[in-house]
Each structure stands twice: as C-alpha cells, then as structure tokens.
Amino acid sequence: MREKTPSHRQPRKLLLRPTLDRLLASEKQMNRAGCDFLKVDVATALIFAQTALSTDDPVKKRRNRKSARKAYDTVIRIAKKIVLTDQDAKYLEKGLKRLRAELTQLGENL
Predict the structure, then answer these.
(1) Which residues contact 95 (CB under 8 A, 6 or more apart)?
(2) Which contacts qualify for 69-72: CB closer than 8 Å, 24 or more apart?
(3) Which of 1, 12, 38, 74 is in the most buried spot, having the most CB atoms within 10 Å?
(4) CB within 8 A of 62, min separation 6: which ones?
(5) What phi and psi, each to the nearest 5 degrees, are found at residue 53?
(6) pTM
(7) Euclidean distance between CA atoms 100 and 65, whole angstroms
(8) Backbone dihedral angles phi then psi of residue 57, each to the nearest 5 degrees
(9) Which residues of the chain have pLDDT under 50?
(10) What is the 3-state composition of the chain as percent helix, strand, coil, each rounded to the nearest 5?
C-alpha cells in the first residue's frame, strides 16, 4: 500500500531544464510555423482582394477589401519578427507585391 503524503507537504516537483539544443529546436520550429502562417495569410489576403475586385456589390467589395488590408498589415507586422530563408522571403515578397498592387487598385493607401 502506498503511503499518503500529509496534506501540508506537497510532493517535490522536478524542474526540467531544457537543453540548449531543445531551445534552439523549439525556436526553429516556432520560426517555421510563423513563416507558414505568413504564407497562408498572404494567400488568404490575395483571395479577399481578388473577390473585392471581381464583385459589383459595394458591401461585399468593402468587406473583402478591409479583410485583405488587415491580412496585409498583419503579414507586414509579423514578418519583422520572423527569420525567413531566401526562398521564403522571395515567395512572400512576390505575394506582397501582387497584394499591394491589388489593394492600391481597390483604393487603399499603402
């Protein structure tokens, strides 16, 4: 039978210290997730912008323009915190260039 710990005494908790390798791997993984998020957000913003450009409905146009702009602003803000590979940077810049052109066409001041 297992002996119970008195209620006034808590069992010791083991403090696990992450190794430097684990910290670096975790940082790399977080950076990769951030980069993937940026790619998805640019693609989503482009869909919003294209939808806004292709509709005659002023409410739908405004809603999608605003969503595209919000996604654009988010990508610009988060991209400053992410370390991008050359390939990822080129991909994002290409998408952002297209997005800027479409947002400008929609009347956004960038």
Answers:
(1) 39, 42, 43, 46
(2) 69/103, 69/108, 71/41, 71/42, 71/44, 71/45, 72/45, 72/96, 72/99, 72/100, 72/103, 72/110
(3) 38
(4) 52
(5) -70, -30
(6) 0.75
(7) 12
(8) -75, 115
(9) none
(10) 70, 0, 30
